[in-house]
Give the backbone structure.
Amino acid sequence: MTAHTRETNSMSDAQDKAGTLIEALPWIQRFAGTTMVIKYGGNAMVNEDLRRAFAEDIVFLHHVGIHPVVVHGGGPQINAMLGRLGIESEFKGGLRVTTPEAMDVVRMVLTGQVGRELVGLINSHGPYAVGMSGEDGGLLRAVRTGTVVDGEEVDLGLVGEVVGVDPDGITDILDAGRIPVISTVAPEILDDGTGSGPTTGQVLNVNADTAAAAVASALGASKLVILTDVEGLYANWPDKSSLISSLTATELRAMLPKLESGMIPKMAACLKAIDEGVERAHIVDGRLAHSMLLETFTTAGIGTQVVPDEEVNA
């Protein structure tokens, strides 16, 4: 290759990059000043390169004027620590029964390990991230939930569902120009139907997808983005050509009972967010580096987005 050819290729690459930046401009203008809630999990959480790429994405969002809020679980890390400590897990209906002994590990791993690692990765770019848990400042409130196996109610122990969010602690951090990183454990309250009953003194392990949806709606977020380990929602799984790029809340509601069991909590979280006023909800492939930026700042996008019905009918 001649020097002239190399120079031409270099200029072409530079122009392509400039074109990408310009393509992102209307999306940056649209979302600057808004809050985005990102559920962090799956391969993006355990692969070192993807973890670094995710941290870069969060810092990028911050610097283009968007206010990212990260909500994370940590199933693989919890499994690893329970195994290391010799604590056996019992499963009912495919769900882990969380004993007080296991809950101590959940709390330690989510808040003390996964959250701290992510805060550290983001802060390798500057003093941005602040770690917190659903316990801090009464951020999350949860009620205990079980499951149904063969038509019978089953007790799952210290497992709960978020029924209330007090976003003041998050907005304090955002107002200070920082990035909240939230681990999904929550104080248990007595269920009085209002989401604000008295606390019991117990802490519950809550689903990170539904917690992220509750946080997004409480903050009036412009987007909820859930990272997962598939390309998006398929109309006819496992037919890869049936990937759905966009659908309405009503279309999703009709599909929900027929989805694969692993996809139901994620899509139910998207539906909850849209029903409660979040403008957009997205399922994005966390196995692809910078997938969140591609979904947010390119015309084509990737993954699956859920939109309100009235947007389509308008």
Summary: The chain has a mean pLDDT of 92. The CA atoms of residues 222 and 279 lie 5 Å apart. The radius of gyration is 20 Å.
